[in-house]
């Protein structure tokens, strides 16, 4: 709003850098521009004040998708007046020369124009999409359609930016969709839980199989150890028996050879006695007998004992 000071018969206007002032007096353009400060006569002056700063226009409206589902579109349009002369010619931006306030509500008129035009382009693109597509990709499509088709140069405005905040279904449909997604997510979570449990069971089974396999392998090794110990004991016994047999055979061989030697000696002795006269043998026999008899202090030989001996020797 322009700052107007009142004086008798005169007024003083002080503008701002963000508003464009047009001063027409008796049909002639006297002042025009931003940041102006001038005197004027209130009875003949026609003043217009056009904001030239960036303005944001939030919108919230309903639309219907291709599958007849209602959605709510929330977006914001940023615009700026770039042609104040055209804007003042199409929209009433005139201000009261005494108070500096707008006589009408030009910003509401601009808002209505931009809202209706924006809704037209948004409804057109959303009418070709089903609900699922509109929720997933509708934000970007609506933004692109509005940005490409929305123009306001016929009223001296330039569209700076289009921001689509959200496209949402009605509360019941959104709840249903959330339930569906929630159920799907829950199913995925349950699936992950089941898979995790199955993996745990599989790991436990694998561990049990490994333990059983280790026990089997250990039992086999123990069996091999027992067999090896038995084989070692058997070999040791066989070696001991073989050594005993060798020792017994050696001992028997020694005894045999000794017996053979004794027999040979006895034979040689007997062979030596073959050439000795019989009487000599008897004498030797008596001598040997006498050597083997116990000690005798005295012996008495009677004729009846000596006679037979002498007869034998005489033969």
UniProtKB/TrEMBL annotation:
Coiled coil start-end: 184-211
Q: What residues does the Band domain cover?
A: 30-195
Which Pfam families does the entry mention?
Band_7
Q: Which keywords label this protein?
A: Coiled coil
Q: Does the keyword Cell inner membrane apply?
A: no
Q: Which domain of life is it from?
A: Bacteria
- Protein's name in the database: SPFH domain-containing protein
What is the originating organism of this protein? Answer: Lentzea kristufekii
């Amino acid at each position: 709003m322009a700052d107007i000071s009142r004086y008798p018969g005169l007024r003083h206007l002080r503008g701002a850098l963000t508003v464009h002032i047009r001063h027409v007096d008796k049909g002639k353009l006297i002042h025009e521009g931003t940041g102006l400060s001038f005197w004027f006569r209130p009875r003949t002056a026609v003043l217009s004040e056009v904001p030239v700063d960036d303005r944001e226009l939030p919108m919230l409206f309903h639309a219907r998708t291709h599958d007849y589902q209602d959605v709510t579109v929330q977006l914001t349009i940023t615009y700026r007046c770039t042609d104040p002369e055209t804007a003042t010619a199409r929209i009433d931006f005139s201000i009261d020369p005494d108070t500096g306030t707008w006589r009408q509500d030009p910003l509401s008129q601009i808002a209505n124009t931009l809202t209706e035009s924006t809704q037209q382009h948004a409804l057109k693109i959303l009418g070709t999409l089903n609900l699922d597509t509109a929720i997933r990709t509708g934000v970007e499509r609506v933004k692109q359609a509005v940005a490409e088709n929305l123009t306001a140069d016929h009223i001296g405005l330039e569209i700076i930016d289009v921001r689509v905040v959200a496209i949402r279904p009605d509360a019941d449909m959104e709840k249903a969709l959330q339930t569906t997604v929630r159920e799907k997510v829950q199913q995925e979570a349950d699936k992950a839980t089941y898979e995790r449990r199955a993996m745990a069971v599989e790991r436990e089974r694998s561990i049990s199989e490994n333990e059983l396999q280790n026990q089997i392998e250990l039992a086999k090794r123990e069996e091999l150890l027992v067999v090896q110990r038995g084989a070692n004991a058997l070999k040791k016994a066989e070696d001991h028996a073989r050594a005993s047999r060798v020792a017994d055979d050696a001992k028997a061989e020694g005894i045999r050879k000794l017996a053979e030697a004794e027999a040979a000696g006895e034979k040689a002795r007997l062979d030596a006695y073959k050439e000795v006269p019989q009487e000599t043998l008897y004498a030797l026999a008596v001598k040997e007998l006498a050597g083997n008899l116990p000690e005798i202090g005295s012996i008495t030989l009677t004729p009846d004992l000596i006679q037979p001996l002498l007869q034998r020797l005489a033969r």
